[in-house]
Design a protein that fits this description.
By secondary structure, the chain is of the alpha+beta class. The protein has 2 domains: about 140 residues, Thrombin, subunit H, CATH 2.40.10.10; about 35 residues, no CATH class. It has 4 helices and 6 strands; from the N terminus they run H-H-H-E-E-E-E-E-E-H. It has a 6-stranded antiparallel β-barrel with strand order 1-2-3-6-5-4. Strand 2 and strand 3 form a beta hairpin.
Length: about 200
């Protein structure tokens, strides 16, 4: 296995941080800027509290152009554009309902890279029977392939306080038939840990 580059891990980490994107579910636009006297005094209070010029500029920009989606600066995407992306769902919730709580990336047909905080939490508790994976669907709630997890491997140096080494691997019970492995390249101690954990 080739270890991943820093850029690849940064991209994967961003995907994991943002979670699994759902193409058809968007949050309604924010309310228009309130130009009432009370809102004006609230903005004035913000200025009076010593907000930096950058913070005030960002506030003004958001007021003029409020976000229309749940992820600021995000855009709708399809699984064809990100075939390595998977959703992590609660295994206790039977079909046709799915309860998604995190995301991951396919690094082998039987291995998922996710964040340590996605498995060391009150939902999963690092127990493979408490989560399943959805691969090959733009919408976690329908379609795709639902797969059981055989093992959870959290990075041995993961620190929940500092979020250092926020990586975990999920070994699937059976190799997936949908989705696509993300191409990893060489250069990272985290990738070496993955290769060591996988045993290749």
């Amino acid at each position: 296995m080739k270890p991943a580059s820093t850029a690849t891990f940064a991209s994967i980490s961003l995907i994991l941080l943002c979670g699994f994107s759902v193409a058809s579910h968007a949050q309604s636009a924010c309310k228009a800027v309130d130009d009432s006297p009370s809102a004006f005094s609230a903005r004035s209070a913000l200025e009076g509290q010593g907000a930096t010029p950058e913070a005030l500029a960002a506030f003004r920009q958001l007021s003029l152009n409020p976000p229309r989606t749940r992820i600021v600066g995000g855009q709708l995407t399809l699984i064809a554009d990100n075939p390595w992306q998977v959703a992590l769902i609660r295994s206790a919730v039977p079909e046709p309902t799915r309860s998604q709580f995190c995301g991951g990336s396919i690094i082998r047909n039987e291995w998922i890279l996710t964040a340590g905080h996605c498995v060391r939490n009150a939902i999963v508790r690092e127990d493979p029977t408490r989560l399943e994976v959805i691969a090959g669907s733009s919408q976690y709630a329908i379609g795709g392939e639902r797969l059981k997890v055989a093992a959870v491997h959290t990075h041995p140096n993961y620190n929940q306080t500092t979020m250092d080494n926020d990586f975990a691997l999920l070994r699937l019970q059976t190799p997936m038939t949908k989705g696509q492995v993300i191409a990893l390249s060489r250069v990272s101690t985290a990738a070496e840990w993955i290769a060591t954990t996988i045993g290749r």
